[in-house]
Write a structure and sequence with these properties.
The protein is mostly helical. The protein has a single domain (3-35, 114-306), classed as MFS general substrate transporter like domains (Growth Hormone, Chain: A), CATH 1.20.1250. It has 17 helices and no strands. The protein has helices spanning 3-17, 23-35, 37-49, 51-54, 58-76, 89-104, 115-122, 125-137, 140-154, 159-165, 167-187, 191-210, 216-230, 233-243, 248-258, 264-271, 281-306. Helix 8 (125-137) runs antiparallel to helix 17. The longest helix is centred in the C-terminal third of the chain and has 26 residues, at 281-306. It is globular. The chain crosses the membrane at residues 6-28, 35-54, 60-78, 125-152, 164-182, 194-214, 220-241, 253-274, 280-303. One of its GO terms (molecular function) is transmembrane transporter activity. Keywords: Membrane, Transmembrane, Transmembrane helix, Transport. It is found in: Membrane.
Length: 307
Amino acid sequence: MSPSAINTATSLFFCTFVPLQPLSVILGKKVGQSTYLGIIGLGWGILTLSHSWVKNGKQLIAGAATIAIALATPFSLAKAPGQSWFLSAAVKEFAERRMVLDSAANLDSRFKLSRRDMQEALVDWKLWTILPFNVLASIAPQGFTIFMPIVIKGLGYSGPTANLMTVPPYVVGAVLLLLFAHSSDRFRERTLHILVGITLVLVGLIMAFSLPLASPAARYGGIIVLLSGTFIAAPITVAWLSGNTPEPGKRAVVLAINGWGNLGGIVGSELFLARYGPDYIWPLKVTTGLIAVTFVGYACYYFELKA
């Protein structure tokens, strides 16, 4: 299968498989897999650069590290919100109170998910209004994954060094995501944070297609700007929807439908085809237009809610 076909198949798989998973698994798959991909590249680059002394045993070392992390993970997970070492006292109290309220809402129900929950979610105009913009916002990462190797090659790097050069954009994206998530929770504001993230994506995309191929370093900077805002919209949108849907059953349906945002992967894989290389000007311009539509959509949504 070609990279485009594999990406399309994977996106279709998650769009149908994820809605059937528990909420925590949905959030983990939606946010974690792309944000921390750079760590994988860093590990691979370090192993490859050190091949002189791990040439015959690098598979053993990598496998042992994976097994060790898997064995240690259960002991690092909290059994309840009140035992979460990474949460402050105030957040622990809020999380426990929220779980009690969710449980109380289901005490008189035979089923956790009722027909009424599904009906209310399916006729909620806010959900169906924001869904297409969430799909469009997820297109940018697809362009980056294909366009990044071209930029690295233009810088003159190859092999292990090229793998290491893919790490900084992901690191910047992960740090910015954590900062924006913390700020969004602290100030209890979602839309403006999403709009700032989308603005960063637009700036990065414009830099990527407007700068000449003869300036790969500048284009690499554009990719870093692009990745700094790419991962912000999706998790904050999830927090926005879940925080404004108090009924547990309806919330589960709303977040499952929002998981269809993975359809953006199909659009991205069909845009960044090999025939548009090596500059990918046309796909980048189309992506910029779609992200601009996303910005306008979220902005209209913001003013509608403020009215």
